[in-house]
Automatic annotation (TrEMBL):
Residues 193-216 are annotated as: Disordered. The lineage of its organism: Bacteria, Bacillati, Actinomycetota, Actinomycetes, Pseudonocardiales. Keywords: Membrane, Transmembrane, Transmembrane helix. It comes from the Bacteria. It comes from Actinomycetospora corticicola. This is Ferric reductase like protein.
Length: 216
């Protein structure tokens, strides 16, 4: 994934985040709403923008990728706490087995997000191979994103209408970023493999070097 391509994806996520904020804050749903509901909505919009930006920070910006992941988790936490403060009974029911599907999607997304962040922080200690780590870390992140944005789309609130367009676009951007990162890694490995085979065939590779002679 080229640097310019990554920058474009990251900036697009930022633009979508700003658009989501404009849609939410100008919605009649938040007109005269309690402050905690406004806080819950704003943090949710920012979290979606962070999820859309994450895949575009994988290569070359690991610290930013980690910081964004932690920020997204914190934003989701504030979002949930604000909902509990707003209506404890409704929030607890939503998180129960009898709650609506969209609430279960949000709960599973939150659990997966915690797992993704913990995997990222413990990567060196785990000692897993690169492909194994990327499969689990990236796969869980993708599932958390799809479920989280799906929850937002299904929830009636300040992000209806154009807000739904912003949410879906953010989800598509996140999936595209993840696919581009995986595809780029695969292309890089194939390129290195071809170069190594070409070097061996031409007699310049490591395999063609004569064995060292032992001193007599």
């Amino acid at each position: 994934m080229r640097a310019g391509f990554r920058t474009t994806g990251f900036l697009t996520a930022g633009v979508l985040g700003l658009a989501g904020l404009v849609v939410a804050l100008t919605s009649s749903h938040l007109a005269g709403a309690p402050l905690v509901l406004v806080v819950s909505t704003v943090t949710a919009v920012l979290a979606v923008a962070g999820l859309a930006a994450q895949p575009w920070l994988v290569r070359g910006r690991v610290r930013a990728h980690t910081a964004t992941g932690l920020a997204v988790l914190a934003l989701v936490g504030v979002h949930v706490v604000a909902l509990v403060v707003l209506s404890p009974d409704d929030a607890l029911f939503a998180m129960s087995p009898d709650g609506p599907t969209r609430a279960r999607m949000a709960l599973i997304s939150l659990v997966l997000l915690v797992v993704v962040v913990l995997l990222g922080l413990a990567r060196r200690r785990l000692g897993w191979s690169g492909p194994t780590f990327r499969l689990l870390h990236g796969g869980f992140a993708l599932l958390a994103t799809v479920l989280g944005i799906g929850h937002a789309v299904l929830t009636d609130g300040a992000l209806e209408g154009w807000g739904t367009v912003v949410l879906v676009a953010s989800g598509v951007l996140s999936v595209a970023g993840g696919a581009a990162a995986v595809g780029r890694r695969g292309l890089g490995r194939r390129t290195l493999s071809r170069r190594a085979r070409a070097a061996r065939a031409s007699g310049t590779g490591p395999a063609s070097a004569p064995p060292p002679t032992r001193p007599r």
